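Fig. S4 source data, part A: sequence.
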Amino acid sequence: MNIYLKVYRLLTGIGILINLTFAFSAFFYNDLLINQVGSGDASLFDVIWLGNTGMFIFLMAWFFLPTVIDPRRYPLYSWLTAWSRVFSAFYWILFLTLRMPDLPSSFWTIPLADGVIGVVTVFCLFRGLPRS
């Protein structure tokens, strides 16, 4: 395996750990996350949707796992994994600038992390995967 695919695997693995950290926080510490947004006490609606989001992110992390093991075996999934980070960063940038500009600046770590991981992993796949 070439160096580009090794970097892809490393960054995708780090991204999975980041996703799982948020997912488990959404499951077990949802009040803490809701209070970070400043919405006060968590309503049942907030808790349900945050848990649902955590479950989606948990399932997404499992979807990414085969590409960490061997990105050449599942090239389509590898590309989808990398580009999903780029699209996620783009969404968060739009959301934080247009819809919720008053959120704490710590929320900018989301598009920053997704953007860096996404752009670098797309580059690594472009350089590392064989052309068909």
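Fig. S4 source data, part B ends here. The chain has one domain: 3-128.
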